[in-house]
Amino acid sequence: MTTPLTLVANIEAKAEQVEFVKSELLKLVAPTRLEAGCIQYDLHQDNNNPVLFTFVETWESKALLQAHLNSPHLAMYVQATEGAVVNFKLNEITKIA
């Protein structure tokens, strides 16, 4: 049995684009949760700095994550938010305790 893959995706929106980026990120949640291999896909917004968003994701496998990264709804998000996002960082993490 393969160990599920956990990711933390950090998105920093431009200050004047926070609500727009938030609305576009929210559009990803429902279709992504229906994807094969999606165990967890939760969106968070920083309490002290609202330009910062974090997805905590768990996928059954790297291959199923890759399918998500190539999904039409993710491509639409990237296109829609071009120029509205300052920084994006994706970290793969492993639970150790």
TrEMBL record:
**Which terms are listed as keywords in the entry?**
Monooxygenase, Oxidoreductase
Query: Does Oxidoreductase appear among the keywords?
Result: yes
Report if keyword NAD is assigned: no
According to the entry, every stretch annotated as the ABM domain falls at 5-97
Pfam hit, one: ABM
Its recorded name reads Antibiotic biosynthesis monooxygenase
Q: Which residues cross the membrane?
A: none
Q: Name one GO molecular function term.
A: monooxygenase activity
Q: Which domain of life is it from?
A: Bacteria
Which InterPro entries would you find in this protein's record? ABM_dom, AI-2_Isomerase_LsrG, Dimeric_a/b-barrel
